[in-house]
Amino acid sequence: MLLACSWSQSGESTADHYARALAAADFDSAWALCAGAGPERADCEQAVVARHGRFDRCGAIAEGVWREECEFAEAEHLSRGGDRPAALRACHASNFSVNCEQHVLDGLAMTLRDATAADVAAAFATVRPDVTGKNSALDFWRSWHRIRLAAGLPVASEDCPDKTCRLALHAQVRREAFARLGGGGCTPTPPTIGATSPEVTRWIDRAWRERCCLEPGRCSPATVELADEPE
Question: Model pTM?
Answer without folding.
Answer: 0.76
